[in-house]
Design goal:
Elements (H helix, E strand, L loop, with lengths): L4 E10 L5 E10 L13 E5 L6 E5 L6 E5 L16 E5 L13
Antiparallel strand pairs: 1-2, 3-6, 4-5
């Protein structure tokens, strides 16, 4: 795909029962970042509220640090609120193929 161009299309997936779902796909090949700029780098976007805060837990997980969202002993929170805590990661791939994401 040429640099600095975007491509959008859709996929139609059908299961064994004949039920179809359409998935929109958007791909962009930016000028920057390039592979060398992204070595072992990911972008994290964190939003916290007064009830649910993020806490790093060392020596746990694939990257040797895990994130705990909130206190497990606090009451359940309404996840449909506008100001709900969240943690998002942007990631970049430089090869085509399958990707496994574990949460």
């Amino acid at each position: 795909m040429p640099v600095d161009e975007a491509f959008s299309n859709s996929l139609t997936i059908e299961n064994a029962a004949g039920i179809r779902k359409q998935i929109l796909v958007s791909v962009f090949n930016p000028i920057s970042p390039i592979r060398e700029e992204m070595k072992e780098l990911y972008m994290q976007h964190k939003r916290e509220n007064n009830v649910i805060r993020m806490r790093l837990i060392p020596n746990l997980g694939v990257e040797n640090t895990a994130v705990q969202m909130g206190n497990p002993t606090h009451p359940k929170q309404n996840t449909r609120r506008d100001k709900m805590s969240s943690l998002e990661y942007d990631f970049y791939t430089f090869k085509q193929g399958l990707v496994d994401v574990y949460t």
